[in-house]
Amino acid sequence: MPNDAKAVELPKELEEHLESYVAAFNSGDAESVDSHYTDAGIIVWEKGNPVSGEQRHAAIKEFLSLTEPHIETDVREAYVTGDTALLVVDWTMEINAESGEGRESLRGVGLDVLRKQANGSWLYAVDDPFGEEPRD
Length: 136
Prior knowledge:
The protein is of the alpha+beta class. It has one domain: Nuclear Transport Factor 2, Chain: A, CATH 3.10.450. It has three helices and six strands; from the N terminus they run ααββαββββ. It has a six-stranded mixed β-sheet with strand order 2-1-6-5-4-3, covered by helices on one side. It is globular, with a radius of gyration of 15 Å.
């Protein structure tokens, strides 16, 4: 059986999803950020602690309001099969420092699983921003 699987260029619909997510995240709009997830979608913003549903929404709202983040992303790899996509995403973020004094920088490599919806749009099923170690 031939193996036709390969990494792909980021499909336009996935690129649009990511751009929309980043814009919502950077604007601090928790409702809009949360709308980028399937109903059962999970975030793993704290290692070993996946949350979904109302807990996901509350975590997004709290993080955005406390940290006033600014994120930038760069897709390292994209894999698509049928209605499922895996994105490997390098990201950097500036947030309010916990001390309340200035800003601090974070970076990571996200492993994101998305599902294609009936209308052709893509939504996060799994959002794990610390899925892999960043490159030096």
